[in-house]
Amino acid sequence: MKVSKIIKNFFGHLTTINEHRFLVMKHCFRVGLYKQGLTHDLSKYSPTEFIPGVKYFQGDRSPNNAQREHEGYSSAWLHHKGRNKHHLEYWIDYAVSNGDDKAHTKMEGMKMPIRYVCEMFIDRVSASKNYQKEKYTDKSALEYYEKSVDHYMIHPDTKAMLEYLLVMLSVKGEEYTYRYIKKEVLKGHIPYEKDKINQLEQGLHV
Hints:
- Helix content is 62%, strand content 3%.
- It is built from ten helices and two strands; from the N terminus they run αααααββααααα.
- A two-stranded antiparallel sheet has the order 1-2.
- Helix 1 (3-31) packs across helix 6.
- The chain is globular.
């Protein structure tokens, strides 16, 4: 790779990280997640993540995808997902046995703490804004999620809550959704159970 290309990618990738972190921080602050807003994605500045990010910088999509396509896996992503609790992949573990030893051979998504579900939602919205720029709408994060959800290993309750917030954003808009997260979701007023959340989501379509 030419020096000029390295320099361009370096500043391009650094700018993308900084812009994304700023958006996440701003939205986390809106809902009262101050510590998570300040510490979001700090591992992206580590050599393990930053160097591949520069090498495979794209500008319009994650460099992790480019590294995965070229090398067969993304070392940056493997490092990142194991250190950031707002990613559903962080919470994949062996199933609880409940007396069945065979259950230990199965992996599944654990139920994420609600504050990390909210950060995950904010992360997805912010990433959509970063990459889609002027093409972004309140439906963008939901549309991206729907393209990928089939392969997610995610707890049913966590899945229901994430989908509820994404649908709410697409229907009610950003101001309403962030106010709802701060006043209702994070204060524990909304039941964090799949069936009850699905009932609430149906009300958004009325």
